Amino acid sequence: VSFVVGKDRIIFATKEDHETPSSAELVADDPDDPYEEQGLILPNGDINWNCPCLGGMASGPCGEQFKSAFSCFHYSTEEIKGSDCVDQFRAMQECMQKYPDLYPQEDENEEKEKSSKDLEATPIEASAAKEEKGSS
Predict the structure, then answer these.
(1) Which residue from 41, 119, 38 is spatially nearest to 74, judged by alpha carbons?
(2) Hey, what domains does the chain have and what are their CATH numbers?
(3) pLDDT value, residue 98
(4) pTM summary value
(5) CA 43 to CA 75: how far, in whole Å?
(6) I need a surface site. Which of 20, 38, 121, 127 has the fewest CB within 10 A?
(7) DSSP string spanning 43-105?
(8) What percentage of the chain has pLDDT greater than the value 90?
(9) Whole-angstrom distance, CA of residue 136 vs CA of residue 134
(10) Using one digit for the tens of pLDDT, what is the confidence trace for 9-62?
């Protein structure tokens, strides 16, 4: 039994299917296949959206925003590469924030809290040390 969802074909195999020897034939890799795992950048300079290195970011609900931002950065000719892509990256970030289960954010709030606690601790320790010096 198989059915197609989007670009993927889903096949259900039974125990019996696994017990019979495979009749699949291996076909030599086609060096001109643009979807073959050739890394992030294809020989012609295009982005390989199927590269496993992208971790599936090019698909999903924010795939188009990711592709737009990444393409902009890749083809950017600005002195600070990608500095002309702020709007695309903002759109991608806003989209990803709508899907926290799919795109977990690195906890910036925790990092900010840790650094602010560290900063708060420093002046208190410094003023306590001054008081000790003054009282001796």
Answers:
(1) 41
(2) 37-98 (1.10.287.2900)
(3) 94
(4) 0.51
(5) 15
(6) 20
(7) TTS-B-TT-GGGTTTTSSTTHHHHHHHHHHHHH--SSSTTTT-HHHHHHHHHHHHT-TTTSPP
(8) 34
(9) 6
(10) 665 556 666 576 655 554 445 555 545 557 899 999 999 999 989 988 998 899
